[in-house]
Amino acid sequence: MRDPFRVALIGFGGFGRVHIRALQAMEKEGLAALHAIAEINQEAYGEQLALWREKGVHIYTDWQEMLAECECDIVAVATPLHLHREMVITALEAGYPVLCEKSAAVTVQDAIAMAQTAAHSGLLCGIDFQLLASDAVGKLKQLIAAGSLGEVKRISGVGLGNRSDQYYQRASWAGKFRIGDKYVLDGPMDNAFAHMLNNMLYIAAPAPGQLAAPVKVRASMYRAQPLAEMEDTAAVWVKTKEGPELLYLATYNNAVNKPHYYRVEGTLGTAVVENNQLVVTKQGRREVLSTQAMNGKTEDIYRNFIRGLTHNETLFSAIDESIKLAKAQNGAYISSGRIHPIPEPYYSRVPIEGDTATVYADIADVFMRCVEQHILPADLAAPWAVDVREVDVTDLEVYQPVSPDQL
Ligand SMILES: NC(=O)c1ccc[n+]([C@@H]2O[C@H](COP(=O)([O-])OP(=O)(O)OC[C@H]3O[C@@H](n4cnc5c(N)ncnc54)[C@H](O)[C@@H]3O)[C@@H](O)[C@H]2O)c1
Questions:
Q1: d(Cα 159, Cα 1) in Å, to the nearest integer?
Q2: Region 5-130: CATH code
Q3: What is the DSSP letter of 392?
C-alpha cells in the first residue's frame, strides 16, 4: 500500500476547516493526511495554526512559498472565489493535482483556462461539489439511466436560505462584484446555491461525472440586501442540449434556512427531493427511496479524488465540466442585464439573534408556484419581478461584466 497522499491546503479559515476534518477522516483510513497549510490571515488564525505546527504540519503565510517548498502530493484550495484561477493554475503548473472549492470559477474564461492547464499538465483537477456524492443524486442518476422516469423533461430546484448581515460582514469579498481586477460575483448562484444548479445540470446529463450543456438561458437576478452588490435572489431557466429544461430558484432572503428542494419530471414518473427525502411517484404510487437524500460530504470528494489518482476513477466534478456550469451562471447574468433592486414593501429588515436579516415574506410561496408551472417569477407576474430575455450561451467563452448595473 502506498503512503497516504500529503495534502497542502490553501485557506484555513472558513471552509478550509471542513477540508481539515475530511483529511482527519482520510488519515484514519490511511488515504491522505494534512501536510501543510497556507493562510494569509495569521492575525486571526495564528494561535490555531501554531497547534497544527506542533502536530508536524508545515505552516505558511504565503501560498506560493508553500508550493515552492513543501513536498506534497495534492494541493487543496479553499480560498475565496476570485482567487481560485491563479492558485489552481499555479499549483497545476508546479506539478500538483488540485482539489478546489466550488465554484471553480465565476467566469467561463477562468474555468476554460483552468481546464486547459489541467489538460496540458495531465493532472487531475477536481471541484468540491460534495452534494454530487449524495444518496439522492446517485439514485436519481440510476433511475434516469434505467429509464424508470421515462424521458426527463423538467428539473426544478428551490434553494431557500437565510443569510443575515453578519454573513456579508464576515469577509471582505462577501457579496462583492469585483475586487481589484478580479471578478468575485459572490451571490447565491455562484456560492452557496451553486451546488443546486450544479446538481441539476448533473442530473440532466447522461453519464456520471458529466454536466448537461446549457444552450439557452432566461434569468433575472434580484437584490434587497443592503450589504450586497450582487444578487441575493436568482431565478434562472436553462434549456440544455441534452433536452431537460431546468428551473433554478434560489434566495438568501427566506425567513429560515431550508434543505434543497428538487423535482425531476419524466414522461413516466416524478421524483421529488424534499426535507432530505427522495420520493418517486409513478402511476399514483409513491415510494420513498432515501431518507438521507442530500448527504454528500467533502470527504466523499476526497475519496473520489484519491481513487481518481490511484485507479483512474471518474471524478464527480472535474474542472472541464465546470465550464458548463459557468456558462449557465454567466448566461443568467447576461440575461438579467443587471441586478434588479427589489423595492419596498416586498422585503423587510428583520432582527434575528442580535443581527439583522433581509426577508422576502412570500418568496417560498412564489418559488413553489413557479415550480408548479415551470416558469420564472416574471412569467408568474410576481409584483417585484422583471421581464427577462433569452440568451444563447452555446458558444459563450468570455464574460466581462462592467458593474452590477451592467451585467
Ligand atoms: N463546498 C461547500 O459546501 C462550501 C461551503 C462554504 C464555502 N465554500 C467555498 O469555499 C471557498 C472559501 O469560502 P469561505 O466562505 O470559507 O471563505 P472565507 O473568506 O471565510 O475563508 C477563506 C480563507 O482563505 C484565506 N485566504 C484568503 N486569501 C488567501 C491567500 N492569498 N492565501 C492564503 N489564504 C488566503 C482567508 O484568510 C480565509 O481564512 C469558496 O470558494 C466557497 O465557495 C464551499
A1: 43
A2: 3.40.50.720
A3: E
Distance (angstroms) between ligand 1 centre and the Cα of 369 equals: 35
Is the pLDDT score of 300 beyond 90?
Answer: yes
Residue 145: burial class (beta carbons within 10 Å; 0-12, 13-18, 19+): exposed
Q: Phi and psi dihedrals of 112, rounded to 5? A: -65, -45
Can you tell me the distance from the alpha carbon of 379 to that of 385, in angstroms, rounded to the nearest whole number? 9
Cα 7 from Cα 151, distance rounded (Å) = 42
pLDDT band at 21 (very low <50, low <70, confident <90, very high): very high
Angstrom distance (rounded) from CA 123 to CA 96: 7
**pLDDT, tens only, 345-396:** 999 999 998 999 999 989 999 999 999 999 999 999 999 999 889 999 999 9
Domain spans of the chain, in order of start: 5-130, 134-296+319-392
State phi, psi for 34 to the nearest 5 degrees.
-70, 125
HSE-CB for 245 with a 13 A CA cutoff: 13
Relative to the CA of 12, which ligand 1 atom is closest?
39
Q: Which CATH class is domain 134-296+319-392?
A: alpha beta
For 56-93, how does the pLDDT look when each residue is reduced to its tens digit (9 = 90+)? Answer: 999 999 999 999 998 999 999 999 999 999 999 999 99
Q: Which atom of ligand 1 is nearest to the CA of 81?
A: 41
* pLDDT score, position 361: 87
Judge if the beta carbon of residue 48 lies within 6 A of ligand 1: no
CA distances from 64 to 39, 69, 150, 395 (A): 11, 9, 51, 34
Question: What is the position in ligand 1's atom list of the atom closest to the CA of 128?
Answer: 1
Q: What is the pLDDT of residue 147?
A: 97
